[in-house]
Write a structure and sequence with these properties.
57% of the residues lie in helices and 12% in strands. The protein contains 17 helices and eight strands. The protein has an eight-stranded mixed sheet with strand order 1-8-7-6-5-4-2-3, with helices on both faces. Bound molecules: NADP nicotinamide-adenine-dinucleotide phosphate (NAP).
Length: 327
């Protein structure tokens, strides 16, 4: 059983005398900064010149600070930047301003696992990775609840890194739901793998291929859209609430029998072989390198994907249905 930490396992003392610098005020950064401050901790936000999110941070009552000033002023630095931007920002605007014995907090293990920056040997390096988007980190916090998080310590120079990690997780509300102990490498690999195999890679491709197959055979695109895409939410909700076995109990016998014979035909030994190759590419660091090269080249693969999907038939049908029907 994984080790789980709850609110009673942590207190805020390890961070109460520190200035916490949140660098980046996007999806995660804004939620972390607001929750940390509402938990009574001292927070500074660092944004780049001309930043789109600077206005939001001002509206939220934070003073304008450059990344350099925050790196200089704060002993705890929460690096809430896109993973591909971290090496450049760290080299230019953080590393030259560091003091001894800083603590670095990451929301994803990518940077540390792929060693895209060289962090000081005397620093604490901790991971507090919420298992969902920043807006949920914030909204659940305001409701008195929290989003579970994955927690890890990569480097414990002070001997206090775990206490700081737990204090941070508690302050952003995650220990209300539970913090699960992991390592930077396990969090990075499982996160990248699952978003590629299931969530953002496999599932959308299966939906597109299933839709195309129906439409090619002359079935109405609107019906194909509703069956292949819209109904995913019903099954996802069942999976979320009850797991795979609970979902099966809730569906018809026709659906049970159909899935029993067709599921393993689709996800067969060759698919499992592909999944192992995908995992190898992530574990070996090859995926990380490909992604950083893609970012350095201006993200051509991502732009192509977005362009082609925007103009695809399934996207057009979805847009039309959303304007004509109530969904
Ligand atoms: N998104 C999620 O759901 C999620 C979930 C768990 C963990 N994470 C992790 O959380 C971390 C932050 O991701 P995010 O999704 O919150 O990022 P994001 O929403 O893309 O936030 C980007 C922030 O970084 C700033 N920024 C971007 N490039 C910069 C640069 N070159 N110099 C200075 N500032 C720069 C942006 O400023 P501007 O306003 O100027 O653009 C913005 O404030 C990542 O490690 C990510 O893997 C994300």
């Amino acid at each position: 059983m994984a080790k789980v930490f709850l609110e009673n396992d942590a207190d805020l003392d390890p961070l109460s005398q520190c200035s916490i610098g949140v660098i980046g005020y996007g999806n995660q950064g804004r939620a972390h900064a607001l929750n940390l401050r509402d938990s009574g901790l001292t927070v500074q936000v660092g944004t780049r010149d001309g930043s789109r999110s600077r206005e939001q941070s001002l509206k939220d009552g934070f003073a304008v600070n450059t990344v350099e000033a925050v790196a200089n002023n704060c002993e705890v630095l929460a690096i809430m930047l896109p993973d591909e931007a971290i090496p450049h920002v760290y080299a230019e605007s953080i590393e030259p301003y560091l003091e001894a014995h800083d603590t670095f907090v990451f929301a994803h293990g990518f940077t540390v696992y792929h060693k895209t920056i060289r962090l000081p040997d005397d620093a604490d390096i901790v991971l507090v990775a919420p298992t969902g988007p920043g807006r949920q980190v914030r909204s659940l916090y305001l409701e008195g609840a929290g989003l579970p998080a994955l927690l890890a310590v990569e480097q414990n120079a002070s001997g206090l890194a775990w206490n700081r990690c737990l204090a941070y997780a508690r302050a952003i509300g995650c220990l209300r739901a539970g913090g699960i102990e992991t390592t930077f490498s396990e969090e990075t690999i499982t996160d990248l793998y699952c978003e590629q195999s299931v969530l953002c890679g496999g599932l959308p491709e299966l939906i597109k291929a299933s839709f195309d197959t129906l439409v090619e055979k002359g079935y109405q695109p609107e019906l194909a859209y509703i069956s292949c895409l819209k109904e995913v939410k019903l099954i996802a909700d069942l999976l979320f609430e009850r797991g795979i076995d609970g979902m099966r109990e809730a569906i018809s016998n026709t659906a049970k029998y159909g899935s029993a014979i067709s599921g393993p035909e689709l996800i067969n030994s060759s698919t499992r072989h592909q999944l192992r190759k995908l995992l190898d590419r992530i574990e070996s660091g090859k995926f990380g390198k490909l992604f950083l090269d893609e970012a350095a080249a201006g993200s051509p693969t991502i732009k192509d994907l977005l362009r082609s999907e925007k103009h695809s038939q399934i996207a057009r049908v979805g847009r039309e249905l959303r304007t004509t029907l109530d969904f």
